[in-house]
TrEMBL record:
Organism: Mycolicibacterium agri (Mycobacterium agri)
Highest taxon of source: Bacteria
SUPFAM superfamilies on file: PP2C-like
A Pfam match: PP2C_2
Protein name as annotated: Serine/threonine protein phosphatase PstP
CDD domains assigned: PP2Cc
Amino acid sequence: MTLVLRYAARSDRGLVRANNEDSVYAGARLLALADGMGGHAAGEVASQLVIAALAHLDDDEPGGDLLSKLEEAVREGNAAIAAHVEADPELEGMGTTLTAILFDGNRLGLVHIGDSRGYLLRDGELTQITKDDTFVQTLVDEGRITAEEAHSHPQRSLIMRALTGHEVEPTLIMREARAGDRYLLCSDGLSDPVSQDTILEALQIPDVAESADRLIELALRGGGPDNVTVVVADVIDDDYGQTQPILAGAVSGDDDQGAPPDTSAGRASAFNPRRNEAKRVVPQPEELPKPQRSKRKMFIAAALLVLLVLAGLAVGREIVRNNYYVTEHDGTVSIMRGVQGSFLGIALQEPYLLGCLNDRNDLSLIAADQARDNLNCRMLNVNDMRPSERAQVVAGLPSGSLDNAIGQMEELARSSVLPICPKPKPKPTTTAAPPPPPPPGPAPGVPNASGNPGEDNPPPRGPLPGPAPEPPASPTPAPTATALPPPPPEPGKTCRTVS
């Protein structure tokens, strides 16, 4: 009895995500699925690196200790992630799940980490053969919630273990393979929106390619909230197996970066499955010549080269997408995404956030495409900056992460913005003061101090006063400096105007 695999692999970015971070490899000996994570931190790069590290296991005769080979390949993929993060710290946080099967006749090795899943359909019964490395799964294991409650738990996507470049031990399991078994590997883009009963119905479609297409369609009809990737593989007793491996998702390099279709029907109709030729598998005495092997190895080597090139391009693209710097754009102090310059006439940067100041000089950052009709702030013009900082902003401040660029903007608003020009004061008008009133005197007929009305007071008795002493000479006052008026404000140099 010769057991071989008949397989199909499909991947779709879904109806919400702008790009596909899943990567999948399906071959005669190796089935591997990686769900990248990290968003702007290049999850798609992480999934490509891990799949590239496993691809060499897809040889005609893996033999030996399957789990050791899987473990070593996973370690290489994890080390590749660590090397990329070390070379570009902006990629810190990228990672990937992994579920992979290494097939060898009536036995297979399974490696798993993360929340991608493996299922086995045997004798009409569907069984999950992997255990999610998630927070909600720990709650289920502790009896705090049920499996049904875990399916709708708000933290169901919180992963406890993944390949992120840090040391981690994946789950490794040996299993027996039987003719008639059907295996499904899938990302959570399928298992989250589609129930296990519905997955079972789709897996009962005899043809593996049609079954895989149906699973993708079900995920899209469920809203397609995430990238969705599946591998469907049958263990069959046959002399014929498939010739070439299937690459799909980010690792294939053909992910469409246009806007997602508005409907699941449009997405399903746009999906074009790839089919592969079958090849004869000869039970091997060692002495028989195997001319097919060299061709297969050449194809695998070419596939690995393509994977490495695609991974390098993806890393370069992610570096550009995750680089931010502060400069002037159309007169406004802005945070740009990308790098300065252009390539073949194509700008390598775009405005991302624009500075805006309110009446209290508090900084707000608005999206470059946000409408500006009803803003409660005024765009931060480069001419509002002090002349010394203005030249630096026009030239562009040092680039880095988005948080770094936001910090630079906040510092500019705090210490480099000119004060608001004072409004001109009206000239004061002078008014003549009225003459002082006459001093009060005794009214006519009023008695004086002697008691006789109308009679002047007599002079006081006593010796006549002598000559008055001369007052002491006052010191000569020191000269005082007269303060000059402050220079008038100069808009754009010493102050800024606001409308």
